[in-house]
């Protein structure tokens, strides 16, 4: 069986949760890719238009919250001709399992992509057990 992967363009989607309507302006759900290896889970969140100081990562009671503020591109000297780039906030939450070592989470932001590294606790890391004779 041959699997094919299609590249699908996904536009920013506005959050439709009623709890998000209390925030001023539109709130978008960032697209996220999640990868896993033996030692960690790696999360990549697409947040174009956000600067490093506009990123927020909070961890409270096992809930990881990602936020980002999208600022307008103009510096006040331009007049609008066409505006298609959505201005607002990114917001996404994840519930972390006990397999994540929550005090060792790291993150970096480069080229509009937030990378969050979620290390696994030692008991969740697979290990090979050797068998001896006797």
From TrEMBL:
- Chain intervals with Basic and acidic residues compositional bias: 1-14
Q: What is the lineage of its organism?
A: Bacteria, Pseudomonadati, Thermodesulfobacteriota, Desulfobacteria, Desulfobacterales
- Domain called SHSP: residue spans: 22-134
Q: Which family does it belong to?
A: Belongs to the small heat shock protein (HSP20) family.
Tell me the segments the record calls region Disordered: 1-30
Q: What is this protein called?
A: SHSP domain-containing protein
């Amino acid at each position: 069986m041959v699997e094919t992967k299609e590249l699908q363009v996904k536009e920013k989607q506005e959050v439709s949760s009623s709890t998000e309507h209390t925030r001023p302006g539109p709130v978008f759900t960032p697209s996220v890719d999640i990868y896993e290896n033996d030692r960690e889970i790696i999360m990549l969140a697409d947040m174009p238009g956000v600067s490093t100081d506009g990123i927020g990562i909070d961890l409270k009671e096992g809930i990881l919250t990602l936020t980002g503020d999208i600022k307008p591109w103009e510096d006040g000297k331009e007049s609008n001709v066409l505006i298609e780039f959505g201005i607002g906030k990114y917001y996404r939450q994840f519930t972390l399992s006990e397999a994540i070592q929550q005090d060792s989470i790291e993150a970096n932001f480069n080229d509009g992509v937030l990378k969050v590294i979620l290390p696994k606790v030692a008991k969740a890391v697979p290990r090979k057990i050797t068998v001896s004779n006797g």
